[in-house]
Amino acid sequence: MCPRGRPGRAGRSVGRQGEPVTGRVWEPGLSRRGVLAAAALVTLPVLTSGCGKGFGALGPPPRPLPEVGVLTRAISREHLMIARYQAVVSGFPALAGELGPLLAEHRAHLTALHSRLLPGAKPAPVPSSGPPIPAGPADRAAAIAGLRAAEDRAARALLDSLAVASPSLAQLLASIAASEATHAAALTRPGVTG
Amino acid sequence: MSALLPGAAIQPAGASGVAALQAALAAEHAAIYGYGVAGARLAGARQAQALRDWDAHQSARDTLVSMLAARGTKPVMSATAYQLPFQVRGASTAVALLALLEDGVTRAYLGVVAVTDPAVRSFGARSANAAALRAATWRGRTTAFPGLALR
Questions:
Q1: Which of A79, B8, B17, B139 has a CA-to-CA distance to B97 between 20 and 30 Å?
Q2: What angle (nearest 5°) sits at the alpha carbon of residue A125, between those of residues A123 and A128?
Q3: What is the pTM of this model?
Q4: What is the pLDDT of residue A190?
């Protein structure tokens, strides 16, 4: 059975010692914050109980636009790229100076992609259950070559996804792909390849 | 006299993309002029690089002229003279000008990326990529969002 919102009950809040504090929420002259808190308490059980005519009455959720898939895949790839750079920098601390700016640009890519998904959202940390963080190769040249190949693949994947993106997202993806192509080129510089 | 570096706004685009292609052509005209100015201040390997890039811009200009002609549109002409954003007195200002020019070309091609026709969009992305690579070479460092006003 669904709980009904009853102002008398739901309006209670709990005092510091755990004792119910009653008789405040519905008094005249009540603060707006109090009313909002009460509304939240009334609404929450209805939303969370999952019974009655809850969300089911709304029909199946709308299918996500194809561009949402493009965006989430781009975000996953940026997470993986950041993890790759971090693995190489931790294996070869001498490369931190050279790789730091490229890593910072990948973090900027991630923030920009996230902002398209959820306006104002901050990038989530690399999920531990996500794609495996590659172990840093033992050889510095191999590590750089791995990053270079990853940048090339990432740029190509973005370019391949442009067709289903909206014009403004396509511009962002193309710009990020161009940035990654410049990273791949920068990773061939003698200072980096050692 | 036209400004060498057109405004930062990315052109609105439609399905055919004539306006965006014209903006890209205008940016290529400006780049060809600017490489002529800057190339004269460079020597050795950097001048050779500038000459290769100049060739690339001329090829790109010809491609855009053909694309616009195929759409029944008269391609925009080059201006007779361009206002430089600063005086080019030596190699360092020449290189700085080339980096700025390539930023402008990248931005113009991102306008082409906004076109919905997949082939035109793909052409815009490849061209933006090439310009961003040249910009990074002249600047000596990469940027996170070539052609976009993001940081």
A1: B17
A2: 145
A3: 0.77
A4: 74
